[in-house]
Amino acid sequence: KKLPKCAIGYAGSVTGGARGTMYTVTSSDDNPSRPQRGTFRYGAQLANGRNGGVWITFARSMTIVLRDMVWIRSSTTVDGRGVNVVFTNKCFVLGGVSNVILHNFEISRVPQTDTIHIFGSSRGVWVDHITSSDAKLGLVSVVQGSTDVTISNCYLSNKNFNMLLGASDADLQDRNMRVTIFRNWFRDSMQRMPHCRLGYCHVVNNLYTNWGYYAIGGRANAQILSESNAFI
Protein backbone atom coordinates (compact mmCIF):
# COMPACT_ATOMS: atom_id res chain seq x y z
CA LYS A 1 0.00 0.00 0.00
CA LYS A 2 2.94 2.34 -0.58
CA LEU A 3 1.64 3.23 -4.05
CA PRO A 4 0.02 6.55 -2.95
CA LYS A 5 3.48 7.91 -2.14
CA CYS A 6 4.07 8.02 -5.92
CA ALA A 7 0.98 10.13 -6.66
CA ILE A 8 1.78 13.42 -8.38
CA GLY A 9 0.12 16.54 -9.64
CA TYR A 10 -3.28 17.70 -8.50
CA ALA A 11 -4.15 14.22 -7.22
CA GLY A 12 -0.93 14.04 -5.25
CA SER A 13 -2.65 13.64 -1.88
CA VAL A 14 -4.78 10.60 -2.72
CA THR A 15 -4.56 7.44 -0.63
CA GLY A 16 -7.27 5.35 -2.29
CA GLY A 17 -8.15 2.32 -0.20
CA ALA A 18 -4.92 2.31 1.81
CA ARG A 19 -6.83 2.47 5.10
CA GLY A 20 -9.45 -0.04 4.04
CA THR A 21 -10.09 -3.68 3.27
CA MET A 22 -7.78 -5.77 1.08
CA TYR A 23 -9.69 -7.69 -1.57
CA THR A 24 -8.30 -10.07 -4.21
CA VAL A 25 -10.11 -10.80 -7.46
CA THR A 26 -9.98 -14.53 -8.23
CA SER A 27 -12.67 -14.83 -10.93
CA SER A 28 -13.14 -13.10 -14.28
CA ASP A 29 -16.92 -13.62 -14.20
CA ASP A 30 -19.25 -10.62 -14.08
CA ASN A 31 -22.86 -10.68 -12.91
CA PRO A 32 -24.20 -7.13 -12.44
CA SER A 33 -27.46 -8.23 -10.81
CA ARG A 34 -25.87 -10.62 -8.29
CA PRO A 35 -22.12 -9.99 -7.96
CA GLN A 36 -20.37 -13.06 -6.61
CA ARG A 37 -17.56 -13.08 -4.06
CA GLY A 38 -14.23 -13.27 -5.85
CA THR A 39 -15.31 -11.14 -8.81
CA PHE A 40 -14.19 -7.60 -9.48
CA ARG A 41 -17.70 -6.17 -9.28
CA TYR A 42 -18.18 -7.65 -5.81
CA GLY A 43 -14.99 -5.99 -4.62
CA ALA A 44 -15.91 -2.64 -6.16
CA GLN A 45 -19.03 -2.57 -3.97
CA LEU A 46 -17.16 -3.10 -0.70
CA ALA A 47 -15.97 0.47 -0.22
CA ASN A 48 -18.10 2.59 2.08
CA GLY A 49 -17.72 5.47 4.46
CA ARG A 50 -17.28 3.22 7.48
CA ASN A 51 -14.57 0.75 6.47
CA GLY A 52 -11.92 3.08 5.04
CA GLY A 53 -12.48 1.88 1.50
CA VAL A 54 -11.11 -1.08 -0.45
CA TRP A 55 -7.80 -1.99 -2.09
CA ILE A 56 -8.44 -4.39 -4.98
CA THR A 57 -5.72 -6.67 -6.38
CA PHE A 58 -5.83 -9.63 -8.78
CA ALA A 59 -4.74 -13.21 -8.14
CA ARG A 60 -3.71 -13.80 -11.75
CA SER A 61 -3.81 -12.31 -15.22
CA MET A 62 -7.34 -12.18 -16.62
CA THR A 63 -9.68 -10.53 -19.08
CA ILE A 64 -12.95 -9.33 -17.56
CA VAL A 65 -15.80 -8.72 -19.99
CA LEU A 66 -17.99 -6.26 -18.11
CA ARG A 67 -21.70 -6.81 -18.68
CA ASP A 68 -22.59 -3.37 -17.32
CA MET A 69 -20.72 -0.24 -16.28
CA VAL A 70 -18.90 -0.41 -12.95
CA TRP A 71 -19.46 2.36 -10.41
CA ILE A 72 -16.26 3.03 -8.50
CA ARG A 73 -16.82 4.28 -4.96
CA SER A 74 -14.80 6.69 -2.84
CA SER A 75 -11.56 5.48 -1.22
CA THR A 76 -11.00 2.72 -3.77
CA THR A 77 -7.75 1.48 -5.27
CA VAL A 78 -7.81 -0.82 -8.30
CA ASP A 79 -4.26 -2.18 -8.39
CA GLY A 80 -3.28 -4.37 -11.33
CA ARG A 81 0.43 -4.58 -10.59
CA GLY A 82 2.15 -7.93 -11.09
CA VAL A 83 -0.41 -9.34 -13.53
CA ASN A 84 -2.03 -8.42 -16.85
CA VAL A 85 -5.63 -7.37 -16.29
CA VAL A 86 -7.88 -6.27 -19.16
CA PHE A 87 -11.43 -4.90 -18.86
CA THR A 88 -13.60 -4.72 -21.97
CA ASN A 89 -17.12 -3.89 -23.18
CA LYS A 90 -18.27 -1.41 -20.50
CA CYS A 91 -16.78 1.58 -18.70
CA PHE A 92 -15.69 2.62 -15.22
CA VAL A 93 -17.89 5.39 -13.80
CA LEU A 94 -16.80 7.71 -10.99
CA GLY A 95 -19.71 9.93 -9.99
CA GLY A 96 -19.47 12.26 -7.01
CA VAL A 97 -16.61 10.31 -5.45
CA SER A 98 -13.24 11.19 -3.95
CA ASN A 99 -9.89 9.60 -3.18
CA VAL A 100 -9.63 6.99 -5.96
CA ILE A 101 -6.59 5.32 -7.52
CA LEU A 102 -6.83 3.38 -10.80
CA HIS A 103 -3.49 1.76 -11.52
CA ASN A 104 -1.83 -0.61 -13.96
CA PHE A 105 -4.53 -2.30 -16.02
CA GLU A 106 -6.11 -2.04 -19.45
CA ILE A 107 -9.65 -0.93 -20.27
CA SER A 108 -10.44 -1.04 -23.98
CA ARG A 109 -12.96 -2.01 -26.65
CA VAL A 110 -15.94 -0.16 -25.17
CA PRO A 111 -18.50 0.19 -27.96
CA GLN A 112 -21.00 2.67 -26.46
CA THR A 113 -19.25 5.14 -24.13
CA ASP A 114 -15.85 6.33 -22.99
CA THR A 115 -13.65 4.03 -20.90
CA ILE A 116 -13.24 6.01 -17.65
CA HIS A 117 -15.90 8.64 -16.93
CA ILE A 118 -15.27 11.02 -14.01
CA PHE A 119 -18.16 13.39 -13.29
CA GLY A 120 -20.49 14.84 -10.66
CA SER A 121 -17.94 16.93 -8.72
CA SER A 122 -15.60 14.01 -8.13
CA ARG A 123 -12.24 15.02 -6.72
CA GLY A 124 -8.93 13.43 -5.88
CA VAL A 125 -8.62 10.81 -8.64
CA TRP A 126 -5.32 9.39 -9.87
CA VAL A 127 -5.39 7.43 -13.15
CA ASP A 128 -1.93 5.93 -13.61
CA HIS A 129 -0.28 3.35 -15.87
CA ILE A 130 -3.54 2.62 -17.68
CA THR A 131 -3.75 1.33 -21.24
CA SER A 132 -6.94 2.45 -22.96
CA SER A 133 -8.11 2.31 -26.56
CA ASP A 134 -10.99 1.70 -28.94
CA ALA A 135 -14.02 3.42 -27.38
CA LYS A 136 -16.91 5.20 -29.08
CA LEU A 137 -17.01 8.48 -27.13
CA GLY A 138 -13.36 8.78 -26.16
CA LEU A 139 -11.20 7.43 -23.38
CA VAL A 140 -10.84 9.35 -20.10
CA SER A 141 -13.35 12.15 -19.40
CA VAL A 142 -13.30 14.61 -16.49
CA VAL A 143 -16.50 16.67 -16.45
CA GLN A 144 -19.27 18.36 -14.45
CA GLY A 145 -17.35 20.00 -11.64
CA SER A 146 -14.74 17.31 -11.09
CA THR A 147 -11.28 18.46 -10.06
CA ASP A 148 -7.89 17.53 -8.59
CA VAL A 149 -7.33 14.74 -11.10
CA THR A 150 -4.02 13.38 -12.38
CA ILE A 151 -3.71 11.21 -15.48
CA SER A 152 -0.16 9.91 -15.75
CA ASN A 153 2.01 7.29 -17.43
CA CYS A 154 -0.86 6.03 -19.60
CA TYR A 155 -1.02 4.68 -23.15
CA LEU A 156 -4.07 6.26 -24.81
CA SER A 157 -5.07 5.50 -28.39
CA ASN A 158 -8.44 6.05 -30.06
CA LYS A 159 -9.44 6.64 -33.67
CA ASN A 160 -11.23 9.93 -33.00
CA PHE A 161 -11.71 11.45 -29.53
CA ASN A 162 -9.17 10.82 -26.81
CA MET A 163 -9.54 12.86 -23.60
CA LEU A 164 -12.20 15.41 -22.65
CA LEU A 165 -11.78 17.81 -19.72
CA GLY A 166 -15.05 19.70 -19.39
CA ALA A 167 -18.02 18.57 -21.47
CA SER A 168 -19.95 21.78 -22.06
CA ASP A 169 -19.37 25.53 -22.16
CA ALA A 170 -22.46 25.81 -19.93
CA ASP A 171 -20.94 23.74 -17.09
CA LEU A 172 -19.61 26.76 -15.24
CA GLN A 173 -18.61 24.63 -12.26
CA ASP A 174 -15.72 23.43 -14.41
CA ARG A 175 -14.06 26.81 -13.86
CA ASN A 176 -12.65 25.18 -10.70
CA MET A 177 -11.35 22.11 -12.52
CA ARG A 178 -7.66 21.32 -12.10
CA VAL A 179 -6.14 18.41 -14.00
CA THR A 180 -2.56 17.22 -14.43
CA ILE A 181 -1.73 15.33 -17.63
CA PHE A 182 1.76 13.90 -17.14
CA ARG A 183 3.99 11.57 -19.14
CA ASN A 184 1.34 9.85 -21.24
CA TRP A 185 1.64 8.49 -24.76
CA PHE A 186 -1.18 9.78 -26.98
CA ARG A 187 -1.18 7.73 -30.17
CA ASP A 188 -3.23 7.45 -33.37
CA SER A 189 -6.03 9.81 -32.32
CA MET A 190 -7.69 12.58 -34.29
CA GLN A 191 -8.29 15.09 -31.48
CA ARG A 192 -8.74 15.88 -27.76
CA MET A 193 -5.38 14.99 -26.22
CA PRO A 194 -6.80 16.63 -24.17
CA HIS A 195 -9.53 19.14 -24.98
CA CYS A 196 -10.05 21.47 -22.02
CA ARG A 197 -12.98 23.78 -21.22
CA LEU A 198 -13.15 26.46 -18.54
CA GLY A 199 -10.69 24.92 -16.08
CA TYR A 200 -6.92 24.68 -15.66
CA CYS A 201 -4.98 21.88 -17.35
CA HIS A 202 -1.27 21.24 -16.83
CA VAL A 203 -0.07 19.16 -19.79
CA VAL A 204 3.54 18.16 -19.27
CA ASN A 205 6.07 15.63 -20.62
CA ASN A 206 3.67 13.78 -22.90
CA LEU A 207 4.43 12.04 -26.19
CA TYR A 208 2.19 12.63 -29.22
CA THR A 209 2.42 10.44 -32.32
CA ASN A 210 0.24 10.38 -35.43
CA TRP A 211 -2.45 12.86 -34.37
CA GLY A 212 -5.06 14.17 -36.80
CA TYR A 213 -6.95 17.49 -36.47
CA TYR A 214 -5.08 18.69 -33.39
CA ALA A 215 -3.41 17.38 -30.25
CA ILE A 216 -4.05 19.83 -27.38
CA GLY A 217 -7.13 22.03 -27.59
CA GLY A 218 -9.06 24.47 -25.41
CA ARG A 219 -12.08 26.75 -25.42
CA ALA A 220 -14.40 28.70 -23.10
CA ASN A 221 -11.55 30.49 -21.33
CA ALA A 222 -9.67 27.33 -20.45
CA GLN A 223 -6.16 27.80 -19.11
CA ILE A 224 -3.62 25.33 -20.46
CA LEU A 225 0.01 25.13 -19.41
CA SER A 226 1.73 22.97 -22.01
CA GLU A 227 5.39 22.25 -21.41
CA SER A 228 8.06 19.75 -22.45
CA ASN A 229 5.73 17.74 -24.69
CA ALA A 230 7.05 15.89 -27.75
CA PHE A 231 5.12 15.93 -31.04
CA ILE A 232 6.44 13.36 -33.50
From TrEMBL:
It catalyses: Eliminative cleavage of (1->4)-alpha-D-galacturonan to give oligosaccharides with 4-deoxy-alpha-D-galact-4-enuronosyl groups at their non-reducing ends. Pathway: Glycan metabolism; pectin degradation; 2-dehydro-3-deoxy-D-gluconate from pectin: step 2/5. Keywords: Calcium, Lyase, Metal-binding, Signal. GO terms for molecular function: metal ion binding; pectate lyase activity. Transmembrane segments: none annotated. It comes from Selaginella moellendorffii (Spikemoss). This is Pectate lyase. Binds 1 Ca(2+) ion. Required for its activity. Its EC number is 4.2.2.2. Belongs to the polysaccharide lyase 1 family. Residues 33-232 form the Pectate lyase domain. It comes from the Eukaryota. GO terms for biological process: pectin catabolic process. Its cofactor is Ca(2+).
